Amino acid sequence: MVEPVNSSLGKMLLEEVSPVVMVLCTPLVEETFLKNGLSFVETLKPFCNFSNIDVPVRTSSDQLYRLKKFTLRLFYASDIRQPNVEVAKQRLEHVITQAGEKDFQNLTSDPPQITDILSNPESEIAPSWFQYYNKELIRTLSFSDHEAFDHPVACLLVVSSKDEEPIKNFIDLFNSNRLPNDGAMDPNILKHYLLVHDNQDATTERTSKVLSEMRSQFGNNECNLLCTNSSKEGNVEHQANPWASFKSSVSADKLGCALTGDDIVEIKDLIQEFASRHIIPYMEQKVRELNQQISATRKGLRNQIKNLWWRKGKDDGPDATKGSISTESQIRILGDYAFMLHDYELALSSYRLISTDYKLDKAWKHYAGVQEMMGLAYFISDQSKKEAEYCMENAFSTYMKLGKSGFQNATRCGLWWAEMLKARKQHKEAASVYFRICGEEPLHAAVMLEHASYCYVLTRPVMLHKYGFHLVLSGDHYKNCDQVNHAIRTYKSAITVYKSTTWSHIKDHVYFHIGQWYAIVGMHDVAVRNMLKVLDCGYQSKATQEIFLRDFFDIVKKTGMKHEVVGLQLPIINMSSLQVIYEDHRTYASQASALVEESIWQSLEDDIIPSLNSGKSNWLELQSKLLPKKYKESNVCVAGESVKVDLEFRNPLLISTSITSVSLICELTANSDDLQLGKLYLLFHVHVIIFYIHQVVYAKLISTFGLCKVDKEPSSSILDPKSSTEHNRVTTSGFSSFALSEVDFTLGGGEKKLVRLTVTPSEEGILKIVGVRWELSGSIVGVHYFQSVPVKAKTAKGRKKNKLTPTDALKFLVIKSLPRLEGSIDHLPGKLYAGDLRYLVLELKNKSESPIKNLKMKISHPRFVSPGNHEEDLTTEFPDCLRKGNEQDIVQRETIRTNSVFAFPKDVSLQGDKSIRWPLWLRAAIPGTISLYFTIYYEMENVSSIMKYRTLRMHYKLQVLPSLETSYEITPSPSRLQEYLVRMDIVNCAKSDCFQIHQLSTVGCRWGISLLQPVDTILPSKTLLAGQTLSCFFIIKDCRKSGTEDYKSMSLPSSQTDVKLFTQDGDEKLFDIVNSPLASFHDSERSCQGPSAQVSPNAVDFILISSLAKSSNSSAVPDVPEILSHHSCHNSIRSSSPLSWSLEGPKTIHHDFSTLCEINLKLIIRNTSEGLSSVIINTIDCLLDTASPTTSSGSQSGWRYVPAVTEEMKLTSDVMGSRLSKPPSSMESSPPFIWSGLSSTKVQIKPLSTTEIPLQISVFSPGIYDLSSYKLDWELSEHVSASSTTSSGTCQGIPYYLTVLQSE
Q1: Residues 1248-1257: tens digit of each pLDDT
Q2: End-to-end Cα spacing for the chain
Q3: 724: how many CB neighbours lie within 10 A of its CB?
Q4: I need a labelling partner for 1154 at 20 to 30 A (CA). Which of 516, 849, 996, 1184 fits?
Q5: DSSP secondary structure, 222-261, as one string
Q6: Please, which residues have CB within 8 angstroms of residue 841's CB and are 6 or more apart in sequence?
Q7: 821-961 and 1139-1188+1225-1302 share one fold
Q8: Crossing angle of the two packed helices 427-436 and 407-423, in degrees rounded to 10
Q9: In whole angstroms, what is the distance from residue 328 CA to residue 1049 CA?
Q10: Assigned CATH topology for domain 1139-1188+1225-1302
C-alpha cells in the first residue's frame, strides 16, 4: 500500500490544508505582470509547492524535526471570504461543461474494451478532470468560520517601483477596506513587503532608493525586491511552461513571454525564502505560544474540572465559544497550525481537547469539523485505521444532521473519506461513501455516481455489473442537467459491460439513449448506428418497440438521406433457410420438385442419363476435369432462366413492419476466356468417345483446332463492398445483363415468411449472388451479405475437409440459352382411397424453337403409376374402357420399357410451343402419404452449347386413405383332385364411406373360379359399411392336365377366371384384368408383395374390383373414385404334403357270396411339387376290434355304423389320416375285409404329374366298409428338399365307404 503522505489524499491535504498568504498589491503591480498574460498571484502560484524544502521545525516539544514538503496558498484579500453558493455552483458546472467539451472529439471513437480498462493503472481509469473537480468542490468551503487552516497566516504587500509614493502605498494597503472583515483574522498577522521592479520601463536608481526607504521604515528582513520582465521584446518561449496547467484559457506561448529564465529563478528563490525564513518560523513561534497558553488554562486535571464546572454554570449558548478570542478557537488554531506544520500528534491532542467541549456545547458544526480533522490526522500519520474511519463516519453523520447547511461540509468530508478508503484499497466501501454524498443536486450526483462506478471496477474481484449500473445512473443524471457529452461518455463505457451479457433490456436502454443523445449533438450517423442495435427487441413490450421504431425513423429522416445498413436486424434473416434453386441440365416443374433432396433424383436418373464409362459418371463429372479452378467452384445456369433464392425473413417485433423493394445483390461479369472455354466444351462433346479411346487423339484434335490449353485461372475483379448498388452493375454495359425481382410484403408481429427472390441473367458470363437488400420506411436500406461459412464434407477416403458454402452455391457460370421442357399432370388428385384407379394425362410443352428428341421417363413408384401406350384420348368413358369388349380403345404403339424406364416413341419431337399429351394410369397401391417422383430425360438438337441433354423433374404428394383389406385362405378339396376351397375375408377400413364389390378374378390361365353360394346371399345389403367385415367362399380349379403342359399358354374362358359379385346391373360387363393397366399394376404388385423365387408354384393371385357406393356421400376424398382394384398375390395352398390323391371305385356292390367277392379299385396320386417324388403305398388289413362288422336282431349281418358324410366335406392335410370313431358298443363284431394283391407298392412321380395304382379288396360278408386303411410314405428329391422345410412324410388314407349288399 502507498504511504499516506504519497497517496492521492495525502497530496490533496498538502495542497488544501496549507498556510494561506493574503496578497495586497497596487494596480501598477498587476499591470506589470499582465504583460505576461498573468496576474501577480497567478505568476507566483506555480512556485508555491515545495517538494524538498528541508526546514527544521520545533513546536511543542524540544525535539526537532525537518519539513521536507510544504505548500503556500496565495489569495488576494478580496478573495478571502466564503464563496457565494450560487457562484460556486456555477463554477463547478463550468468545470464539468468544459471537461465535456474537451471530450467531444472522442465521442465518435469506439467504446473502450473492458479488458483495456482493467489493465490500466488506477490513476488512469477515472477521467483526469475528476481531481480538478474535487479540488474545486473542496474550495467552495474555503474560509469557513469554524476552521482555521484557511485563515491568513501572513500578508504579502506588493508595490511597484513605478508608484509615486511607494512607502505610503504600503501603509495604505494594509489599512484599506480591502482587508477581510469576518472577525477571524489575527490583526497581528505577519507582514512582508515586496517591491516590484519592471526591467522594461522602470529605472534602477529610483528602485534602489525606494528599497532603502522600505528597509529603514519596515525593517531589513521584512522587505524584498523582485525584478521582472527582463525580456525587452517580450517573446520568450518556455519549453516546459509552468503556468500552462494553471491557466488553460490563454495560449501557453503567451504565458510568461516577458520573463526570462533568470526572472523565473528569482521568483522561485523569493517564494522559497519567504516560506522558509518567514512563514514557517512565524507559525512555529505561534504554535509554541498557543500551546503554553492552553497548557496553563486547559490542560491538567485541575483545569479540566474548572472548565467543566464553568460550562455547567454559564448561561450563554453554544455560539459563545465560536469567537476568535475564545479558548476553543485558540485550541482549534493550534491544532490547524500543527497540522499544517506536519506535527500530527500535537494536532490530534488539540482536536481531542476541544472535541468534547463542542459536543457538550452542542456546537455541532464545530464538533464535526474537529472530528473530520482528527480522521485526517489519524490517516496522514498512519495511525489507527479504525479510529480514522470512526472519526470520518462521526463527522459525516453530524454534518448530515445539520440539514442543508451542513451538506456541503458533508460532501467534502465524504470526498476525503472516500479517498482515504481508496488509499487503503477499500474501493467497495469508498463506492458506498460516494453514493451517500450524491445529494439532491443532479449534476453533483452524476459526478459522485461516476466516482462510485470506478471504485467498483477497482475492487477485487471486479464488480462489473455494479460498475455498469452506476455508469448508467450517472449518465441519466448528466442528461437531466443537459450535460449530453458526459452522458454519452458514461453510457459508452457501460456498453462494454452489457454488450456481451444476456441483459437485453438494459442493453437496449443504453443503445437507445446513446442514439438519442448522439442525435442531439448532431452526430446522426453515429446515432443511427447505435439505434440499429435495439431493432431486434422482440422481448420488449409493444409500446416500447413502437417508441424505439418511431425515434429510429425520426433520426434517420433528420439526416435527409438514405442510409445503407449492413447487417440490419429488422427483419432478421434466417441463413439456415437459404435455399438456392437453379436449373442447369436439371429443370423442375414446380417448387416442390426443387426442394427434393438431390440424392433421390440421382437414384432415378442413374438409369436414364447416358453414362460414358463403367463408373456411371455422367459428362458433367467429366467436364469438371477440364474446367479451370475458378469455374470448378461455380454452378451452371442458362441465360434467360431464373436463379431462385428462398430466404426466410422474421419480424422480431410485436408490431407489423412493412418491407419493400426486397431484391438480391448480384454481379455479372463477362470473361474473355468464356469464348475459348465454350469452344473447348464443344470440341469435348464432339469427340468425347474418342477421348475415352485414347487421350493422345484428343490432344491432337486440340492442336489441330489451334486451341491453347486452359491451365491458368481467368482474371477476376474484386468488388468494392461500399454500397450494395455497386454490386448490381455489370461489366458488359449497354443494357442490364440480368433482371432482379423485387418483393414487397408486410410481416406481422413475430411472423415468419419465406420469400422467393430471383435473378435472371440474359448474357453469358459469371454470375455471383452477393447478398440481399431491402428498404424500411423509404429511408433505410438494409443489406445482408452472404458470407462464407465453413462446413464439413466427407471425401471418398472418409476424411473431412472444409468446404465453403453458401458462397460456392451462389456462384454461377451462365451459358447460352437452351430449350426447356415444361410438364404437368392433369386431374391428379391429392387425396384418394387405397386401390383407387385413375386415368391421368401428362402434358409436355417446349416453348423454344429448338426441337427436343429422345424423350425417356422414369417413375419412382411403378406400383402407383404406369404410362399408357397411346397418345390419343380414350373413345370410351373411364372406367368403361377397362371392361371386356372395349380392348379397341387401347391403341398399341411402339414403346420401349427397360429397367422401369419408359421411352417415348422415336418420332416424338417438340418445338415451337407445341405440346404432347400422354396417358398415365394411377393406382393408389397402399395407404399413407406417398411422394411420387417423375424424371423426364430429353436431348436437344441444333444447339451449340456445352449441354446436350436436360431432365425435367416432377414431384407430387398423395394422401392415400385405407379402403378395403382382403385376405384369402385356400385348402385342398378332400374328394377331388385339383380343386380347392377359397375363403375370402373383406374388411372395410374406411372411417365413414361404404363400398360395393363387383368382381373377383384369378390371375393367369391356370386357375378357374366359381361361386360356392348364390350371389344374392354373399352381401344382401349390396354395400359394405364402414368397419364391416365379410366372408365368402369360392372354388378354384387347377386347369393343368400334366406337368409338361405350359399353363401360361392356356386360354380359359372369362367365365372361368372371373366371378361377378354384384347383381344390380345385369348387363354390366366384367373388367378386363388381362390387359393394361390392371395387368401391369398386378405385375408391380407381384414384385412388391414378394420375390417370385420364394413363392410356391401352387400360389394363386386374386384381383378384387370394387367401387364407392353410390349412396355414400364421400367427405374423405374430394374426387369420388370410380373403380378400385385390390390385388392379393402369392396366396399359397394350406397343405403340409406335396401329394394329393383320391381312391376311385364302385360305391355299391351286390354279391351272392357263393364265390369270393373281389372288388377292383384305383388310387390316383398327383405330385404338386416341382421335384421328383418317391411314394410307397402300404395297405393294412382291418383288425377285429377296429373294423369287424356288427349284427343285431332284425338286421343283415355285415352292416356297420357310418357317420353322415358328404362329398363336399372339407378336409385338410392335417386331418387326412384321422379315423372314424368307434361304433356303438351295442353293435356286434363281424368278419373284416382284406386287401388282396400286393401289400406294398413303390412308384416315382415326376414333377406336377399324375399316376394311377390298381388296388383290390376281398369282402366276406355284406356291410358298409371304410377303405381308408392304407398309408402313403413320400420323399422328395435332394435338390427340392434342400429348399423345402420338409423332405419326407407319411399320409393316412382318405375315408372311402363301400356298400356291399346280398344279391337275391
Answers
A1: 788 888 988 8
A2: 149
A3: 21
A4: 1184
A5: TEEEEEE---SS-----SS-TTTTT-TTS-TTTTTTT--H
A6: 825, 826, 827, 917, 918, 919, 920
A7: yes
A8: 170
A9: 141
A10: Immunoglobulin-like (2.60.40)
The one-letter code for the residue type at 1172 is: L
| Grid coordinates given for 1220 | 372314424
Place of cell 425515434: 551
> Domain extents for the chain?
4-82+142-281, 572-586+613-815, 821-961, 964-1131, 1139-1188+1225-1302
Q: Which of 942, 622, 678 is nearest to 814 (CA)?
A: 678
CA distance 396 to 429: 14
Question: DSSP code of 883?
Answer: B
Query: Does residue 1188 have a pLDDT over 70?
Result: no
The per-residue pLDDT for range 537-558, each reduced to its tens digit, is 888 888 988 888 888 888 888 8
Assigned CATH topology for domain 4-82+142-281: Rossmann fold (3.40.50)
SS3 42: helix
Residue 68: Cβ within 10 Å count:
13
Taking the CB of residue 105, how many other CB atoms lie within 10 A of it?
8
Q: Angle at which helices 327-340 and 364-380 pack, to 10 degrees?
A: 20
Predicted confidence (pLDDT) at residue 72 exceeds the cutoff of 90: yes
Pairing of strands 752-761, 738-740: antiparallel
Mean pLDDT of 1000-1025: 85
Q: How many CA atoms lie within 13 A of 35 on its CB side?
A: 22
CB-based contacts of 230, cutoff 8 Å, min separation 6: 199, 258, 259, 260, 262, 263
Distances (CA, A) of 172 to 177, 181, 197: 10, 16, 20
Q: Is 813 within 8 Å of 631 (Cβ atoms)?
A: yes
Task: Give the pTM.
Answer: 0.63
pLDDT in tens, 925-938: 999 999 999 999 99
Determine what percent of the chain is predicted with pLDDT higher than 90: 22
pLDDT beyond 50 at 729: no
Q: Is 1138 helix (H, G, I), strand (E, B) or coil?
A: coil
pLDDT digits (tens, 9 = 90+) for 795-818: 333 334 444 455 567 888 888 888
Name the helix (H) or strand (E) containing 564. strand 563-566
Buried b (16+ CB within 10 A) or exposed e, 1187-1224: bbbbbeeeeeebbbeeeeeeeeeebebeebeeebeebe
Residue 1272's nearest CA partner among 1208, 1180, 1144, 1171 is 1180
HEC assignment per residue over 897-945:
EECCEEECCCCCCECCCEEEEEEEEEECCCCEEEEEEEEEEEEECCCCC
Q: Would you say residue 866 has pLDDT above 50?
A: yes
Give start and end residues of each alpha helix (H) in 608-665: 619-623, 629-632
pLDDT at position 1093, please? 52
Amino acid at 807: T
Query: What CATH number does the domain located at 821-961 have?
Result: 2.60.40.10
Measured distance CA(625)–CA(633) in Å, rounded: 12
> For residue 795, what pLDDT is reported?
33
Best CA proximity match to 20, nearest among 243, 169, 180, 215: 180
Nearest to 571 by CA among 782, 779, 828, 845: 782
> Using 50, 70 and 90 to split pLDDT, how confident is the model at 64?
confident
Assess contact for 896 and 846: CB atoms under 8 A: no
Amino acid identity, position 651: N
| Cβ-Cβ contacts under 8 Å for 640 (sequence gap 6 or more) | 760, 761, 762, 817
CB 578 within 8 A of CB 664: no
Report the alpha-carbon distance of residue 702 to residue 707 in Å, rounded: 6
- Residue 268: alpha-carbon gap to chain centroid: 70
Q: How many residues does the chain have?
A: 1304
